[in-house]
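Need a sequence for this fold. Nothing fancy.
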């Protein structure tokens, strides 16, 4: 078992292991960001779709993925709210954001990671796109061009960009 593995709880996944599926209703939650600001999923969904990218700072695939998410945010503008969801403490979360130039909000899911568990997270990065009606339209993990293109809403990654189509978390 990889040290980047996140313990799964069975409650939100219907008693079976696995990440919350496309078409499922995302559980509402409230978390603080690295600066102490409070964020509630249902409030953000009232303004439009929300992308959630769960991560651990020590995960190499997360380190690879987050700079691309930042570029997507810069290019895509404000059509989708993007939140990183950190499974690290505040100091480590701030260090990660500074190291990788992250400017979007990063929320803290403190141990024992109740929000991560409610999404059935097994691997990081865990990637979700939630529509304003609360339904999950993207549920993926690792670095994945297809999933990140859906978050972007346009073809950010192409077949000829020299990047792998997928890199497991």
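Here you go.
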């Amino acid at each position: 078992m990889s040290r980047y593995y996140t313990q799964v709880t069975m409650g939100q996944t219907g008693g079976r292991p696995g990440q919350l599926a496309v078409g499922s209703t995302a559980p509402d939650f409230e978390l603080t960001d690295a600066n102490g600001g409070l964020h509630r999923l249902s409030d953000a969904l009232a303004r439009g779709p929300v992308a959630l990218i769960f991560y651990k700072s020590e995960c190499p695939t997360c380190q690879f993925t987050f700079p691309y998410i930042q570029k997507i945010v810069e290019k895509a503008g404000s059509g989708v709210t993007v939140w990183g969801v950190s499974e690290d403490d505040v100091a480590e979360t701030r260090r990660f954001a500074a190291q990788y130039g992250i400017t979007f909000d990063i929320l803290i899911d403190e141990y024992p990671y109740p929000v991560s568990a409610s999404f059935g997270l097994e691997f990081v990065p865990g990637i979700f796109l939630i529509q304003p009606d609360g339904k999950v339209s993207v549920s993926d993990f690792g670095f994945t061009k297809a999933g990140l293109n859906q978050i972007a809403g346009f073809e950010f990654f192409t077949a000829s960009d020299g990047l792998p189509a997928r890199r497991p978390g």
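For context: Helices lie at 41-45, 60-76, 90-100, 114-118, 145-152.
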